[in-house]
Amino acid sequence: MNAQASPLPEAIIRFDNVTYSVRGKQSNAIIDAISLEIHAGDTLVLLGRSGSGKTTLLKLINAMLSPQSGTVIVQGRATSEWDVIRLRRGIGYVIQEGGLFPHFTVAENIALVPTLEKWDPARISKRVVELLAVVGLDPAEFTIRRPHELSGGQRQRVGVARALAADPPILLMDEPFGALDPVTRAELQREFSNLARRLGKTIVFVTHDLREALLLASRIVLLQSGRIVASAPPREFLHINHPEVKAFASSLDAVAGATS
Amino acid sequence: MTPWQFFAGHRTEILEATAAHLSLVVISMAIAIAIALPLGMFIVHRPALRNIALGMASVFQTIPSLALFGFLIPIPFIGGIGRRTAIVALVLYALLPILRNTYVGLTGIDPAVLQAAEAMGMTNTQILWRVRLPLALPVILAGIRTATVITIGVATIAAAIGAGGLGTFIFRGVAMVSDAVILAGAIPAALLAILADILLARIERRLKVT
Asked: Which helix (H) or strand (E) is A73 found in, with range?
């Protein structure tokens, strides 16, 4: 990484006028000419309704998708110029339901990227134990379990540990807590917000839940129909005068109204 | 003559025919697996080829088995009378269940798992060998089991083109109008099929995760 002592921090991820559409038609763009800078250490939350393009934006970062026009620059290099395998091994990825390998044990799941990177076994097992502790699972109990023997919350913890395994500077999270029951979700959100602060990673987090966004984000970017309609730190976000911001804010009011 | 008397009197002959039958099945299955498994892996990322391969395998399966044996006889190199022709026909017959299950097994994997694998920086080859194949194994094995049971049955007809095996008794029994002789072929063939089914089902269960 380039740790330049410039007055403005270099963006670790940058979208330069990026457009993405399914069949190459400009008319039904999923991502419509987006420019966005994400700075190292930020927790950027991409907020939006279903179909607003937030997951697509996420997948453009690790080249799971390639833009029709414009460039996505990750760590100073366009994703089109990266060797995609190298690029992805340097970016942790967590999805809803975990996407854990059912035929692997917890330890093997967490060790995936280190194994692909051919670390020596002693270093891998040390790292696995370390990471299980980081995500709050007892290594003695969990290393040899398989994903189907875990609860939803435990699976997500393993998913986070797996993403962190090779210590990537960037972490992409696609509604990681979306499938959990509300109590477990709140628990994981709280823990994760502490963890994120401690790790100092650049995190791009996709959600449709404003509360989650307010809790975790250092900046919230609101997407609507493939465009950025608002971008602000959580403190200022609710004061933005835009109908979509208000629509999301009213979802909070509904909750507050029911409990008061 | 009761079947029992016939069995007792022709014990070695029946055992030999069973062994010949089994070798016919094992050789055919080995070849069919050697063709269908790699082919199934190969067509996962090639939709155009997939339709051709599955289509052809389906066509072989629709040809009545006796007719398939008949068709092969005049063909040079692979045809003629005897075991070789029978093995070719049995292989063609066994291809579809193995190929189809291999393809279905490899492609029917939880999309979240495949997406995670891709996003973690696994290459397509690594995903195939370390994710798709282990997870597809029970489905592939189910295909092999189906194919084995079919092959054991169809192999009895191979006796019609001089390939030997348990079908010899069945054809002889039909000609002699003797139930006892027919049963001397039919019962061991049925037992073989049941045993193979149980054995392979057991392995299949052991391989299943979740």
From this structure: strand A69-74
pTM of this prediction? 0.84
CB A15 within 8 A of CB A66: no
Computed from CA positions of residues A29, A35, A40, A46, in that sequence, does the dihedral angle turn out positive or negative? Answer: negative
**A64, A97, A146 ranked by CB distance to B119: nearest:** A64
- Look up tokens 């029709």; give the residue: A68
Check if the beta carbon of residue A165 is closer than 8 Å to that of residue A113.
Answer: yes
Residues in chain B, overall count: 210
Residue in the block written with tokens 């799941």: A109
Contact between residue A173 and residue A209 where contact means Cβ atoms under 8 Å apart: no
8 Å CB contact of B210 and A146: yes
Tens-place pLDDT, residues A8-32: 567 899 999 999 988 755 567 788 9
Contact B120 A85 (CB under 8 A): no
Cβ within 8 Å of A, B 112-141: 112-113, 115-123, 126, 131, 134-135
- Residue A35's H or E segment, with its range, is strand A29-39
- Alpha helices in B43-110, H assignment, sequence order: 47-62, 65-72, 83-107
pLDDT-derived band at A51, boundaries 50, 70, 90: confident
User: On the CB side of B166, how many CA atoms lie within 13 Å of its CA?
Assistant: 28
Q: Using the beta-carbon criterion (under 8 Å), do A99 and B115 form an inter-chain contact? A: yes
Under 8 Å CB pairs connecting chains A and B tally to 64
Nearest to A101 among B118, B121, B131 (CB): B131
Query: With 50 as the cut, is the pLDDT of residue B10 above it?
Result: yes
Chain B, nearest residue to A105 by Cα = B209
ipTM summary value = 0.86
CB contact under 8 A, B113 and A96: no
CA distance A21 to A68: 7
- Give residue-wise pLDDT tens across range A143-167: 999 999 999 999 999 999 999 999 9
The order of strands in the sheet holding A170-174 is A91-95, A170-174, A202-207, A43-48, A219-224, A227-232
A-chain residues within 8 Å CB-CB of B134? 103
pLDDT at A3 over 60: no
Report the candidate in A40, A74, A77, A41 with the shortest Cα–Cα distance to residue A57: A74
